[in-house]
Amino acid sequence: MSTHRPVGFRSQLFFTVTFILAIVVVASTTVTFLVTRAQAYQSVGDLARAQLGQYTRLGVFAAIVGPENKNAVDRFFDEMNGQQALVAVELRGSSGGSLGQWGSEKGALEACGFDRGTGITTHTEVVRRNGYWCAIGPIRQSARDNQHSPQQADSVIGELRLVDSVAETRRAVRRLAAWTFGAGLCVLWLGFLLAWRGVRRLTDPLDQLAEVMRQVREGRSKVRAQLKGPAEVVAIATVFNELLARLEREAETLEMQVDERTKELRAASETARNAVRYKSVFMATVTHEMRTPLHVINSHAVDAIGELEFVEQADASRRHMAVILKQADELLQRVNQILELARAESQTGVVETQAIDLNAFTADMRERSAPLAQEHGNVLQMECDPLTIESDRDKLWVILSNLVTNACKFTRAGIVQVEVRVREEILDLSVRDTGVGITRERQATLWHEFTQVEKRQGRGAGFGLGLAIVKRLTDVLRGQVELTSEPGQGTFVRIRVPLGCPTDRAQEEDGARVARLPATHRSPQ
User: Dihedral (C-alpha) 397, 400, 404, 407: value to the nearest 10 degrees?
Assistant: First the structure.
């Protein structure tokens, strides 16, 4: 699609002014030429009438004696040619007959059409016909005595016919046309120059204002429009400069406000980071301090249960001690979760890789999770690829143990399937259960801290930190989480973690760590 570039105001104004100027000059030149040409022909005609009157006065004698004396007519013709070079001359008598004629161009008298009438004329006539000046006038008998006395028709004693060429008049008219149109062209050219100067005088301030606007659009806000040119342009430039000054003041004010808000935001962000850091330190300290008495409680509870085995009628005491031991284990598990969350928050990005035997890893997980699965009547199935990989064992252990624990807790008399696979340098951990399932609304917030499913049914005892810990540690390992669940149909969770990828940010900045491919091999059978 072609783009049409708009014509500038200067070009439009110059075209309009020059077009009007050209029309005016051409029209004025044409009218001047036509009027001057008409005046020229009128002047030549008036001159011909004056000369015809002079010749008719000279031809009175020739008209009287011409019928008997041809020499008088010839002398009259010679006298006329001595005063003016004519093309043809004819003298007629009172009867209308020709007394004599002379001509340098054949057919000139016939071209004037003098013979179209009858008799001799009684009035003077000068016309332009067929390229000739044709003049005809009467010769009066008393013309020498008194020009202003009344004349009668019977005093006309002859007729004089003169023919002169129009070529000289036409040449004069052509010269007049050349001079007139030449002067018109000069006036037109001078008008173009004056119009261009006038248009430049009007449009230069507008062009300068437009250039200032373009510079402002490019970000140069310090420029200002010059206050020159017509009053309207000066008014526009003044308003534009005032707007620029106002915008500059507002920008400075806004920049100051942004600086202040940025400082406040940085201070608030620093305060928030400190609060999070203090919270993590507090949680880690408190939970660490809580683990020691819990271990003591567990130890004494186990010893007490062992001693009560040899005491008769101590069944109730043994049951009470078993409840104490179970709740202490539950509380220790919650404390461990809080400690793991605090550790994940405080050590984000730190990955410690080591060789991991997936067979041993899966066997340890089975041994740890089997009691919880049996407690809820579940069948625990675990499969793995018999390989050795390199990754962070502690983080993978926490991730998988939380997923298996959740699956066992939220499944009753069902199946919990665990798979540990290696596919294309990706460690694939998946846990599938046939438990209660999760609604789509709850799936959006499931990875947040202190979020639980089915807590109202008593199945979700705890703080709701398991999946939040899974998500944080998976992000540290640069992995991905995937969850699919339907209420009443169970839940499927998959964790995909790249193997051998550098995830320690501090080591990335130093460039000291290189990505390592997974060192996978068959473990001994």
Answer: 150
Residue 204 domain-assigned?
Answer: no
3 state SS of 68: coil
Tell me how far CA of residue 519 lies from CA of 385, 422, 500, in angstroms: 14, 11, 8
Domain annotation covers residue 194: no
Q: DSSP class of residue 512?
A: -
Looking at the DSSP assignment, which residues form a beta bridge with residue 143? none
- Which residues form the domain of 17? 9-144+152-173
Decide if 208 is inside a domain.
Answer: no
Mark whether 361 and 453 lie in a shared domain: yes
Q: Do residues 499 and 518 touch, judged by C-beta distance below 8 A?
A: yes
- Residue 236 falls inside a structural domain: yes
Listing from the earlier edge strand, what are the strands of the sheet with 415-423? Answer: 379-384, 415-423, 426-433, 490-498, 480-486
Instruction: Find where tokens 């890893």 sit.
Output: 361
Residue 321 and residue 358 share a domain? no
The predicted-structure confidence for 314-355, as pLDDT tens digits, reads as follows 777 777 777 787 777 767 666 766 666 666 666 555 778 899
- Helix, strand, coil shares of the chain, percent, nearest 5, are 55, 15, 25
* Distance from C-alpha of 23 to C-alpha of 21, rounded to nearest angstrom: 5
pLDDT in tens, 145-188: 444 444 444 478 888 888 888 877 778 888 888 888 888 888 88
328 and 440 together in one domain: no
Here the tokens at position 394 are 């502690």
pTM of the model: 0.42
Instruction: Give how many domains the chain has, as a whole number.
Output: 3
| 353, 244: one domain | no
What does the alpha-carbon distance between residue 350 and residue 392 come to, in Å, rounded to a whole number? 10
